[in-house]
Design a protein that fits this description.
This protein has a single domain (28-135), classed as Cytochrome C3 (Alpha-Beta Complex). Helix content is 33%, strand content 4%. It is built from 5 helices and 2 strands, in the order H-E-E-H-H-H-H. The longest helix is centred in the N-terminal third of the chain and has 23 residues, at 2-24.
Length: 135
């Protein structure tokens, strides 16, 4: 009897120990409801209209699908043009290029992601005027 009680308590303690991290884990960060307007960083020349980004339409994605760097505090995702990220406003190519962060042919850029998902989501914009409407 003592042994079965002891084993029951050990199993219960292990179950609690394994379940505790699930309750202690921080809640997943939710995408903002409001649309964002991407403004060109200081020093960048623009030839097209500003992009209104519908965060809500991208809610099924994880933040890390687009963002890859946190701010200095480590708790928020940094802006794309943050120092050391995509802060090169002159270049059209390269990892530090602000332009390439949105227009590059890779999974983390807007254009690259939309092209990759074109079969599953045929309305995902890939043409310039779909994101940069004429004023």
């Amino acid at each position: 009897m003592k042994r079965s009680l002891f084993m029951t308590m050990v199993v219960a303690a292990l179950a609690c120990a394994l379940a505790l991290p699930l309750y202690a884990a921080p809640a997943a960060k939710k995408a903002p409801d409001a649309d964002l307007t991407f403004k060109a960083p200081e020093g960048m020349k623009t030839t097209k209209s500003l992009v209104k980004f519908p965060h809500k339409k991208h809610a099924e994605l994880k933040c890390v699908d687009c963002h890859h760097k946190k701010d200095a505090k480590g708790n928020e995702y940094a802006k794309c043009d943050s120092k050391g990220c995509h802060d090169n406003v002159a270049a059209k190519q390269g990892k530090d290029s602000y332009y390439n962060a949105f227009h590059g042919n890779n999974a983390k850029s807007c254009v690259g992601c939309h092209k990759a998902k074109k079969d599953a989501k045929p309305n995902a914009p890939t043409a310039c005027d779909k994101c940069h409407p004429k004023a």
